[in-house]
């Protein structure tokens, strides 16, 4: 294990090694260029995208693309529900949108279940 090499971007293994111009992870087999990894880190500071790839920002309005079950609710959130004034957060378990939904109150959603309106 070389202390100067970054961990694997796929599985976070610390046992990466160099082979020519590539870095290789022996645990998952992922190969990447260290120059490409550095430029990607600088360009994408916490970019959150919706289900079709649009970049989301604080204050956007989004539409739920599939019906969601909600604990304590008999109906859940139906596909097509508009959610206004979202806030992007570093949530738990992939829930990166903080919002208020009419009839349900404050909750967090995953960006993969919404589309920018």
Automatic annotation (TrEMBL):
Residues 48-117 form the Protein YjdM C-terminal domain. Residues 5-33 form the Protein YjdM N-terminal domain. Signal peptide: none annotated. Belongs to the YjdM family. PANTHER family: PROTEIN YJDM, PROTEIN YJDM-RELATED. This is Alkylphosphonate utilization protein. It comes from Streptomyces hiroshimensis.
